[in-house]
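It would be a great kindness if you could assist me with a short task in structural biology. I am sending you one protein, given as its amino acid sequence and as whole-number tokens for its backbone shapes. I would ask you to consider whether the tokens describe a fold that such a sequence might reasonably adopt. The full record is reproduced below for your convenience.
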Amino acid sequence: MTNDQVFSAIVRWLATVTGQKVVRAYQSVKAPALPYIMVNFTGELELREHPQEIEYVGDDEVTATPVIETEWRFSVHAYGASPTDLLRPIVSAHKLAQVTEPLMPGLVVHDLSQIRHVPDFINNAWEPRAQMDIFIRGLVKDGHVIDVIEETTFVHERV
């Protein structure tokens, strides 16, 4: 799964769970009407020093694919009159396997941070905002050609 695929899956899942408009951060477009939620991909982390396994595939070309357990981190921001209430459904949805199933089997909501009330001073007025972090786990499988097996004919003659 690519980072972009994980990002898209989280945006879709959050929109379903919260019932709100959910957008990616830094899209260079005008912000939607309030209320809305913005998701920012903050990074990924390899969870183990070594891959779980390495898959080998191929006959003429051998491709090795390390299976790497990975955690993606997202910062989720809510904007509107009661922003902490916009994020609260995420906390309860995280506790129900049936609600997180759209992300499965490839992704699992591993952990959530607390919901933080973080108002911001914009244009000489305080705007209500809230923020939380979501930690998603899954497997990365990027394959690489490691060997090319060339076939040649072999002729053996007895003299």
